[in-house]
Amino acid sequence: MSQYRTFTAADAVEYARQFGGVADLVDSLEVGDGNLNLVFKIFDTKGISRIIIKQALPYVRCVGESWPLTLDRARIEAEVLNIHGQFCPEHTVKILHYDPQLAVMVMEDLSSLAIWRGEQVKGVDYPQAAAQLGEYLAKTLFHTSDFFQHPHQKKADVARFTNPELCDITEELFFNEPYEVHERNGYPRALEPLVASLRTDDALRLNVAALKHRFLSNAEALLHGDVHSGSIFVGDNTLKVIDAEFGYYGPIGFDVGSALGNLLLNYCALPGLLVPREAADAREKRLNDVRRLWRRFSERFLALAAENSRDRALAYPGYGDAFMRKIWQDTLGFCGTELIRRTVGMSQVADIKEIDDETMKIECVRQAITLGRTLILAAHQIDDIDALIARVRQNG
Ligand code: SR1
Ligand code: MG
Prior knowledge:
By secondary structure, the chain is of the alpha+beta class. It folds into 2 domains: 9-108, 2-Layer Sandwich (Phosphorylase Kinase, domain 1); 114-395, Aminoglycoside phosphotransferase (APH), C-terminal lobe (Aminoglycoside 3'-phosphotransferase, Chain: A, domain 2). It has 14 helices and 12 strands. The strands form 4 sheets. It has a 5-stranded antiparallel β-sheet, sandwiched between helices. Strand 10 and strand 11 (238-241) form a beta hairpin. The longest helix is centred in the C-terminal third of the chain and has 33 residues, at 276-308. The termini are far apart. Bound molecules: 5-S-methyl-5-thio-alpha-D-ribofuranose and magnesium ion (MG). 5-S-methyl-5-thio-alpha-D-ribofuranose (SR1) binds at residues 34-36, 60, 169-170, 173, 226, 347.
């Protein structure tokens, strides 16, 4: 029989005492502000946060028990983070213990760092962060791809990380609902004509169908599956990625595109968040982040492919570059779907929510939607990162 029970604050302290490997733990606070789980900070006798306990609930937290969700996502999250930590320990949160019965993870405490999204909303710059995220993406995605994994291990891992319920959420929220009249959508009313035009744009719908098809069927690497600035902690020269419960074997461009999409969402939101001169300055920094992330990701991935590919056919000179062109095209398309699903669909972000002025909010959302549409439609005409940045500037 399942031993699952929802943790109280006291349960979390007791569990951290057993499995955290830290002395004098006495107190806890539930701090989960994400859509799905409980998250407890566990404090020592001096009131310092030392350990994190994360527990999956049997339903989607932000909706309630009417939307049940598998507890197996805690296994997926712990195992993806362990594998990513093997290949990129410097940028992956450390999992200290995992219990499949309770769907609980004990994790290193990152309270000395800040959530990247919050910092971007305030206009605080972390010049190293984008390159570090590019490094994380290159190392984790290369080492779990067919370039590096033994083909038997790869096939076993594709099965081990089949994640149907969480993928189903992405399949609906990214590729279906924003292009339909749907009760979960949440855009400003004034944008109804623009959103309605997405539903009837045949070229757009065909490209979104092709992107969804690649999400469904291209098992290229073990993705994080939900790379956004709210799942990334940053500090001075430090970056740690958390929250890999959406992990599965999918198209590499999905992770890279999601990461870039969140930077560009912030770019679109900045005029609503900061006074004009600060916003202009922060926007340039965000475009630098976009450039640095892509450059570090693509250069590091190609270097790993040149030096460490184990598959003899994939190691043939020139194949890495050809594959990178495919990743680039996917990245642009998935980046576009992230921009649209975060503004038209259910999963809105602080960058937009924290804009007080309604007129400004509408303009920022409009920009994000039109940029998303452009990236999905014009991916084949955007040859490189400089061309992408030129398109972003043209969009407004
Ligand atoms: C119902 S879950 C909605 C979103 O929250 C998660 O963080 C993922 O981004 C998901 O799409
Ligand atoms: Mg998450």
